Amino acid sequence: MADEISQDRDLWLKTLVEKELGISTEETASPVKDAMVMGLAFITGAAIPLVPHFFLTGDTAIGVSVGGTLAGLFALGLLKGRLVERSPLLQGLEILGIGTISAGVGYALGELIPRLFT
């Protein structure tokens, strides 16, 4: 079967992209629907760290915000692990690590850049 697929270059590339990367080459049915789903996902993800600040103040709000965000990142990684059929725990830790490093770099740049211009 592999020999037959590799004879047709387009079919071979399509199969590699689908099987190795998990990316479908099929056109989506509705770009507007896809955009709405992506927008809703961004709003939901952004709400997790913001909601505690509506109900709490000071260090408590920051602690709940950070904790909720870390828990959300880990849960997202668990879901990713189930979807791609890999270890949910490792995928959860991977997403948690990437998010934590990204937040640390963002915080460090936010502290450093204003100091360069004052």
Automatic annotation (TrEMBL):
Keyword tRNA-binding listed: no
Membrane topology: Multi-pass membrane protein
Record InterPro entries: Ccc1_fam
Subcellular location: Endomembrane system
Organism phylogeny: Eukaryota, Metazoa, Porifera, Demospongiae, Heteroscleromorpha
Family to which the UniProt record says this protein belongs: Belongs to the CCC1 family.
GO CC, one annotated term: endomembrane system
Annotated keywords: Membrane, Transmembrane, Transmembrane helix
Full protein name: Vacuolar iron transporter 1
Organism of origin: Geodia barretti (Barrett's horny sponge)
GO molecular function, one term: manganese ion transmembrane transporter activity
One BP annotation, GO: intracellular manganese ion homeostasis
Lineage top rank: taxon: Eukaryota
Transmembrane portions of the chain: 35-55, 61-79, 91-110
